Amino acid sequence: MKNIPLLACAGLEAGYGASQVLFGIDFHIMQGEVVTLLGRNGMGKSTTIKTIIGALRPSKGEVRFAGESVNAKSPDAIARLGVAIVPEGRHCFPNLSVREHLIAFAAQRNGQRDAWTLERIYGVFPRLRERAHHMGNQLSGGEQQMLAIGRALSTNPRLLILDEATEGLAPVIREEIWRCLATLRDAGQTILVVDKYVHRLVALADRHVILERGNAVWQGTSAELNADRALWHEHLGV
Fold it and tell me: What is the pTM of this model?
């Protein structure tokens, strides 16, 4: 099982009605890896994530999780297999407290002994402990993002997906989120990240997949991406 990717997308095609967005996407993530999806806006990153989590059915190709096809599974069934997403926009519940967010979704889906308990999440995000009894709508944008990550961790996912986790945050809060992601990586959490701050992702991730008009046009390691700045300018607008 160690040689089987935790997530594998093979020949993935998907779209909306008659509009095709993905054209044969191939990539995989091994257990314990951090992998990014990179590309300019409108290149298929969000559609890829929607297809992985079951919110959109592929028209061709296959998504496999831990060796099992999930093409026909519902989003909640895929979540129960151990896939958690921190969505763009955070989507915190305004009438639930921070603590209620973190205990309402608690589960053990990764089989690890060192589980993401309430106390362990508070250890990564001390600010959430301070705001434990505040409602979701009483938090700042940065605090809501920390809560969204903590809520996903409370399910003890095998795969954590972060969609634009630092979008719209103040620089000091972005740095706090980056430190958190490094902590998760060092703890062995498997992560798929979509974000635009390539210079930070190169320091964080093992490998990267660049999407261009629904195609995976480049894949490689952080060292390879860091060494080829022409790729940044050609595909990422950096």
Answer: 0.92
